[in-house]
Specification:
Elements (H helix, E strand, L loop, with lengths): L20 H82 L5 H12 L10 E4 L1 H7 L4 H6 L4 E4 L8 E5 L2 E4 L2 H12 L1
Parallel strand pairs: 1-2
Antiparallel strand pairs: 1-3, 3-4
Helix pairs in contact: 1-5
């Protein structure tokens, strides 16, 4: 046997090898510890994975619940705002209409249309019909349309300073037809509600 070599060489075949029981027990214990360590690691990994999966399921449930609550709250707020807008919109439309119409200068064609609208409420052939207009509108209208006189014999136009420009009232034996702009706007406002 050489002392300078790492390899041990025997001149004859080995007849017997013996291992000490302590070495065998130590090796077996080391294998058991390694197997126990691997089993514990695997069990810990599975326990942690199971715990994390359970946590994820709970968090998903919480997120879904919060999402549903958020969407419900948004829907309720939107519905409340739409209701408020529906309540305000007719008023806004009417106020804009009043402002636009109050700035319009009346012309003969518009006055004639207003008179025709009021007269359309009467049955042709009705007698002694009186149309009241603001004096400026009556003056602008001048001579009324001859077709009106044919349909309504005795039709008279009078100036009424209590009426606003653009207003028209019709009086006959059947009653009064209110063709004032404010009345039309009030009727329109009620229909929008």
């Amino acid at each position: 046997m050489s002392s300078s070599s790492d390899t041990v060489r025997f001149g004859a075949p080995l007849r017997r090898i013996s291992l000490h029981r302590a070495e065998i027990d130590a090796a077996a214990a080391q294998d058991e510890r390694e197997a126990a360590r691997k089993a514990a690691y695997q069990q810990g990994f599975e326990d942690a994975s199971s715990f994390l999966n359970q946590q994820l399921v709970e968090q998903r449930g919480d997120v879904i619940r919060l999402q549903e609550e958020t969407f419900t709250a948004i829907s309720e707020q939107l519905a409340a705002q739409l209701d408020e807008l529906r309540g305000l919109l007719p008023e806004l439309v009417m106020e804009m209409t009043r402002r636009v119409l109050s700035g319009l200068e009346p012309d003969r064609a518009r006055i004639e249309r207003t008179v025709a609208e009021v007269l359309a409420e009467m049955v042709p052939g009705a007698r002694d019909v009186e149309i009241a207009l603001h004096p400026a509108d009556k003056e602008l209208l001048g001579q009324f349309d001859p077709q009106f006189e044919e349909k309504y014999p005795g039709l008279r136009f009078i100036g009424d300073p209590t009426l606003k420009i653009g207003d028209c009232m019709m009086r006959s034996r059947f009653g009064i037809v209110d063709g004032r702009l404010e009345t039309k706007l009030d009727n329109l406002s009620r229909s929008l509600q």
